Amino acid sequence: MSAPRFREDLLEALSNAPGVSGGESEVRSIVAQAVRDQVDTLEVDAMGSLVARIAPTSAASAGARANGSGPRGRRGPHVMLCAHMDEVGIMVHGIEKDGRLRIRRVGGIDPRILVGQVFRIGPKGVAGVSGVLPAHLLTKEDEEKVIPYEDLYLDIGAATREEAMKQVAVGEYGVFDTVYEGWGRVRKGKAFDDRIGCAVLASLVQQRPPVPVTAVWSVQEEIGLRGATAAARRVTPDLAIVLEGTAAGDAPGAADEESAPHMGGGPTITIQDRSLMADAKLNGVLTRVAARRKIPTQWKRPGIGGTDAGKIALSGSGVPAAVVSVACRYIHAPAAYLDLRDAQRSVDLVWHALEALRKEWPVS
Amino acid sequence: MSSATAASLPSTLAPLLTAYGPPGREAGVRQALRRLLRGAGSFSEDATGNLHLHAGGGGARLLVTAHMDAPGVIVTKVDPASGLARLGILGGRRAVELIGATVRFEDGRLAIVTADRSAAKDGELDADALSLESGAGKHSSRKGRSSARRATGNGAHGTHLEVGDVAALEDRPSRLGDLWCAANLDNRAGCAALAAALRSARRSRFDVTAVFTAQSDLGSRGATTAAYGIEPEIAIVVDVAHVGDGKETSGFAVGKGPGVALKESGFLAHPEALELVRRAARAAGTPLQYLIRENEGSDARAIRMSRTGVPTAMIAIPARRSGGLWSLVHADDLAQVSQLISAILTLAPKGAGTKTRRSRRGKGGRR
Q: Looking at the predicted complex, does its ipTM rise above 0.90?
């Protein structure tokens, strides 16, 4: 069976929606709406992760029965597919007498890029500018240094605390004010880490998979892989594949060997990062399938980053886990780029890997 | 029993020191242990890479662990022109300790670790300043550039490296008087002590599962999943502890016999488990010294915190660092640690781990 089509319409909706760690409800609604009719069960767990179960096609089981692999047909391993819904952003931490907002980072935003940005705050999407001193007030030292985020404030145009409090409240989130757009094969948007994974996963379940799948759209990944930790304990899968948006290294000026993975270079596979030694056997399945299907793949540079896969791998008595990512430029920043071909190839790779797993993966 | 254990140690330790087993790639050590422990029980492996040996016996479920992994390096990028590779360090080794080390990949290829010493700051070096020389570059061939390119292109060249390749420290164990001197003593010494004890002690009063854990140096990952699956009622962790690490205040020293940890980073010994070790030391006639350290830890923490908590003790093999690749372990300490483990396995359980309430609850919770 050919792989499902990548749903770009979902990526657009998901990228434009706000969903900072702990406040993923809008993203969750979009995903739930998109997959509701395709999955067998759909629920929200206590952490807020969206968990969908979907049984394999009857054709897949029938084929297995014809192969003589057991009386009830070989269903293959129970696979957990996981993508996180949350994005990095800011939280309103306090409101000053003069109406300025104090902010804190949620997740790993580079403080260098926090200055001079427009954020959308709270459910009303109030615009706020992360203010800086005008040039004529800067000292020489100020020009050289990065403003620590503790010193940053957000200006929503309010003159007093009372005025500000009519628009925003302490504890509300802010996201980058970025609209999804693009031309040719490349798209620009915010939160591609990990709305691209969310969209790839939602695309995958548009068709009944060849093996039993539990799809998890997890929460609070950016602040410590929390949603997936809890979800994995409940799902208890035989193996897991995490779908991610990862940082491309092909920035201008990077030496060639430092630039991997490249945007447009095909799905990126993790060998090792700070949270995970990817399961070598599962990576073997992915690379064999890629070679057979002529899907280009690339390795993520070892030792960098960490994903939900790290926590899933350590859940219960241990779960073989791998990570398939779309390489995005300028991740964790106001706007990132990705190549739509990488999105479709990720869907293709994971879909055909599920087919291979049904035949190859030993099930106890 | 004791003398048999001690006598078999050198032949147990040597193949473990030279086996391939960096974190997450412990296949070589698993294979060596399966060979050494043939007939000692039933083996299984799990998703994290742990090797389980269910030795059986009656009574409370006792988990005994020693981690298999020893530090290694992973190729992070390869410069096609020079053939040099950048690397990341897997496990607890500082970059300076690796300068000049020979490393071996799983398929047998060798490389050495070279360093840009000018990048050193205050005597410390970042892993970014290290490179792997495997002889794949153009300088290694008279044909020059074209052969280097070919080597990188199709992998036919024996020394060609790829991103993600993992290498182990090539060990050359030696004996300096009473001291074992080797690169991978942490924790192959623990594996050897445990393996020798398992071979000599067949009839245990506990239901014994030995787990040689994987990925310990990456944050006790193997111990975490093993303890969850086994749900032990009492646990013993065997690991090397380096003298001078983490502000010991207890006079912990090489040559003074087995150590037992009272406190480590994130871990306090459980009184019942501690008492079991003390009783075993009395029974085996081995000395026992205390280990108290602030900044270093072992798999004991992960096991102690598993599920609803596991009474756990940590037995330490004292070791000294050389400042470079080598560690030093006293042969008598190692033999006595093995005797101590033997004694634990064969002791009649008294108190520890045998409370019926805990046993029943533990068994009921198993799948």
A: no
If you count residue pairs, one on A and one on B, with CB atoms under 8 Å apart, how many are there? 69
Strands B289-292 and B259-264: parallel
Coarse DSSP helix, strand, coil percentages of chain B, rounded to the nearest 5 percent: 35, 25, 40
Q: CB distance from B336 to chain A under 8 Å?
A: no
Q: How far is CA A174 from CA A106, A122, A163, B290, in A?
A: 9, 6, 18, 53
Mean pLDDT by 10 residues, chain A (364 residues): 95 98 97 97 97 83 48 76 97 94 91 89 95 71 74 91 96 97 96 97 96 97 96 97 94 66 96 96 98 97 94 97 97 95 98 96 82
Q: pLDDT, tens digit, for every residue of B67-116? A: 999 999 999 999 888 889 999 999 989 999 999 999 999 999 999 999 98
CATH superfamily of B3-70+184-346: Zn peptidases (3.40.630.10)
> Which of B24, B47, B80 shows the shortest C-beta gap to A272?
B24
- Whether A202 and A334 map to the same domain: the answer is yes
pLDDT in tens, B284-338: 999 999 999 988 899 999 999 999 999 999 999 999 998 889 999 999 999 999 9
Give the total number of structural domains in chain A.
2
For A339, the 3-state DSSP assignment is strand
| B319 vs A29: CA distance, rounded Å | 57
Phi, psi for residue A181 in degrees, rounded to 5:
-165, 180
> Token pair for residue B255?
């040559």
User: In this complex, do B224 and A317 lie within 8 Å of one another by their Cβ atoms?
Assistant: no
A242 in the same domain as A327: yes
What mean pLDDT value characterizes chain B? Answer: 87
Token pair for B295:
């900044």
For the domain covering B72-145+160-169, report its CATH number.
2.40.30.40
Confidence of residue B349 (pLDDT cuts 50, 70, 90): low
Task: Name every chain A residue with its beta carbon within 8 A of the beta carbon of B221.
Answer: 277, 313-314
Structure tokens belonging to residue B143: 């044909």
* Same-domain pairing of A343 and A250: yes
Question: Using the beta-carbon criterion (under 8 Å), do A272 and B164 form an inter-chain contact?
Answer: yes
B 167-206 near A (Cβ less than 8 A)? none
Buried b (16+ CB within 10 A) or exposed e, B243-281: bebeebeeebbbebbbbbbbbbeebebbebbbbbbebbb
The reply to whether B23 touches chain A by the CB within 8 Å rule is yes
Range of the structural domain that residue A252 is part of: 8-87+190-360
- Residues A12, A221, A222, A244: which is the catalytic one? A221
The two three-digit tokens of residue B211, written as one number: 């787990």
Amino acid identity, position A57: T
Please tell me whether residues A218 and A352 are part of one structural domain. Answer: yes
pLDDT at A253: 65
Token pair for B263: 């406190």
Integer angstrom CA distances of residue A196 from A9, A151, A181, A323, B327: 11, 33, 14, 13, 48
Does residue A170 sit within a domain?
yes
What's the pTM value of the predicted model, to 2 decimals?
A: 0.89
Q: What is the pLDDT of residues B199-215, one digit of tens each?
A: 987 678 899 999 999 99
